[in-house]
Specification:
CATH architecture of the largest domain: Orthogonal Bundle
Shape: globular
Distance between the termini: 49 Å
Order of helices and strands: HHHHHHHEEHHH
Strand content: under 5%
Structural class: mainly alpha
CATH class of the largest domain: Mainly Alpha
Radius of gyration: 23 Å
CATH topology of the largest domain: Cytochrome Bc1 Complex, Chain D, domain 2
Number of domains: 2
Helix content: 40-55%
């Protein structure tokens, strides 16, 4: 009987220590709401201020610099406004734009209407762009942000800024109910598609070539290491790649359960 009580005491002690470590020793991942849109007073904004908003979205929420950079992952956009008219006359062009402004907007919403040679999805003969629609998925730029980025790209290329600062978007938004959190993505395919992992990585059926191949990452990294790489991508950089390329806000973009679905999938990819 004495030994029985010793075993019970020891078991309770072990359970208590494990529970304490699980609750206090392991960092908790709390679900976070999607990034909030910048509050803008459009009625009092000058064009220079609007262009500055476009630059912030371009380098921040829009994640444009993830691919449009000197590493050659996507065409540089400094001259995009200057070559827009030539591209609209190219036989490969499949869009409906009739001005530089409408071409730039169309390129963000329907990037496959014209794919610069050498920058299409592998095997598509430059007919399909790996770039997502910036108004959907994890980027989710609204009408004002798209207009601001368009103005920024026009200004960046030294072209005339023809974009007009929207005046009615903010008023319409005031009449809407408070934005609710989106529904969680339930499958790994949804997560990969919405977050845009396939733009850079080979994963699921995506064939991105701008980031490390993740098809068998589970054979090299543990679940904890994979989770850390997603939440803090600059902590360890894979050979041949540079820091500050992968977005560092997936801890905000993804709910906790979505993050764990992704981590579990990658950890089992062997």
């Amino acid at each position: 009987m004495k030994n029985f009580f010793k075993v019970c005491f020891f078991s309770l002690l072990v359970i208590g220590l494990f529970a304490g470590f699980a609750n206090l020793g392991v960092p908790r991942i709390e679900p976070a709401p999607p990034p909030t849109e910048e509050k803008l007073d459009l009625g009092a904004m000058t064009m220079d201020q609007f262009i500055a908003v476009g630059e912030r979205v371009y380098k921040g929420k829009g994640t444009c610099t993830l691919c449009h950079n000197n590493l050659g992952r996507a065409p540089l956009l400094e001259k995009a406004a200057g070559v827009a008219e030539a591209r609209m006359k190219d036989p490969k062009y499949k869009g409906e734009a009739d001005s530089i402004e409408s071409y730039l907007i169309e390129s963000m919403l329907k990037p496959s209407v014209y794919v610069v040679a050498g920058f299409g999805k592998k095997g598509s003969n430059d007919a399909v762009s790996p770039m997502p629609d910036v108004s959907g998925g994890s980027i989710g730029m609204n009408e004002v942000e798209i207009a601001a980025v368009t103005a920024y790209i026009q200004d960046l290329g030294g072209a005339e800024v023809t974009v007009e600062i929207p005046s009615d978007v903010g008023e319409a938004a005031d009449d809407e109910e408070e934005e609710q959190q989106r529904k969680p993505y339930e499958t790994i395919e949804d997560i990969i598609s919405e977050v845009g992992c396939g733009a850079c990585h080979k994963i699921v059926e995506e064939e991105g070539e701008n980031g490390p191949d993740l098809t068998d990452i589970g054979a090299e990294r543990s679940a904890a290491e994979i989770r850390k790489s997603i939440l803090d991508p600059n902590a360890e950089i894979s050979d041949g790649f540079e820091a500050d390329i992968m977005p560092q806000d997936y801890g905000v973009q993804l709910y906790a359960q979505e993050l764990e679905i992704l981590v579990e999938y990658l950890a089992k990819s062997k």
